[in-house]
Amino acid sequence: MQLRRSKQRDLITEILKSTCSHPTAEWIYEQAREKDPTISLGTVYRNLKLLCDIGEAMALETADKKIHYDGCVKNHRHFICNNCGAVYDLEPTSVEQPSELLQKGFTVTRESCVYYGTCGECLSK
Ligand SMILES: [Zn+2]
Ligand SMILES: [Zn+2]
Fold first, then answer.
1. Cα 106 to Cα 76: distance, rounded to the nearest angstrom
2. Are 83 and 47 contained in the same domain?
3. How far is the CA of 86 from the centre of ligand 2 (A)?
4. What is the pLDDT of residue 1?
5. Which of 50, 70, 90 is the last residue of a domain?
6. Residue 118 Cα, ligand 2 centroid: separation in angstroms?
7. How far apart are CA 104 and CA 68, in angstroms?
8. How high is the pLDDT of residue 62?
9. d(CA 67, ligand 1 centre) in Å
10. CA-to-CA dists, residue 48 to 15, 38, 51, 95, angstroms
11. C-alpha–C-alpha distance, residues 109 and 38, integer Å
């Protein structure tokens, strides 16, 4: 049981890391089912949450109000199109330490920044 669970987690991790499309749990489930028909959506949800808890994945909410998962855990910013909901990655950067927080003696270890707007493809339509 223990072993099978971690095998399914490996599969979910592999699928998540192989795409930059910031998929939803449902999308990952569809992919996972092709390789392991016994996997359930609940298992996918549980493992995605676990991966977020241990810092192997990130969750972000987009304009469609669904949770999208990101297998890239380097500090990077996102752009989300308000029109089509596409999520774009910006180049990984170091975590910004705003002077306002430094002055208070705080240390920032993670930053989550999302830009919202209209993507090039939607603008050119
Ligand atoms: Zn768009
Ligand atoms: Zn990302």
1. 21
2. no
3. 11
4. 39
5. 70
6. 17
7. 33
8. 74
9. 18
10. 11, 17, 5, 24
11. 38
* 89 in the same domain as 117: yes
What is the whole-number distance in angstroms between the Cα of residue 51 and the centre of ligand 2?
A: 15
Q: State whether 53 and 89 are in the same domain.
A: no
What's the pLDDT score for residue 3? 43
> Which residue ranges in the chain fall short of pLDDT 50?
1-4
- One domain, residues 66 and 109: no
Q: Mark whether 13 and 57 lie in a shared domain.
A: yes
CATH of the domain at 105: 3.30.1490
CA of residue 11 to ligand 1 center, whole Å: 30
Tokens in use for 102? 């430094």
Measured in Å, residue 21 CA sits from the centre of ligand 1 at: 13
- State the distance from the centre of ligand 2 to the C-alpha of 80, rounded, in angstroms: 10
81 C-alpha to center of ligand 1: Å?
5
Specify the pLDDT at position 5: 52
